[in-house]
Amino acid sequence: MKIILASASPRRQELLKNLFDNFDIRTSSCEENAVLETPSQYVMDLARQKADDVATQYIEESAGSSAKETLVIGADTIVYSDGHVLGKPSGPAGAQAMLQSLSGKDHHVYTGVSLVHIKDGKKRIHDFFECTRVSVSPLSDAEILAYIDTSDPFDKAGSYGIQGYFSRHIRGIEGDYFNVVGLPVNKLYEQLKQLRLL
Questions:
Q1: What is the pLDDT of residue 168?
Q2: CATH 3.90.950.10 fits domain 2-194
């Protein structure tokens, strides 16, 4: 079966290698649009939009040919704190504001995953999510500015990456570490087994 990851995230690509030796990478061109009713539904909606867009493109490109059975995997991660979604920062000021809001508190990281199984030109979609609680130590202004100077916050939800420089400020987590990095590897593996896609 052909595997397609509908994400340009290098972190997701590294994590998916723990499940599949070979996969293609395609990014969605659709305009993401989801309403925040619950953070779990929000991330699943965004993941589904990405995966379904890539799956539709693939089916259209394969029209008239014998397209292989294919699995498209889409994912979206957000930081959810005090009732607000924290996505990727727009710049240094945005990153500083986000990090100040996370300082000394707990927040939740949600990743939605959408699996689009293509067989005989038809799509079957299955969505799920994972949530991890993350506790951040109090951050001084100097610590926040030093982290921003690394440029690490700018491509990450909530303006931080748990696996790098910022790990010195993580007091603890409750749940799946890899979910915070960007892909809940264990839950994805278990879901693929249940769906008989492994």
A1: 97
A2: yes
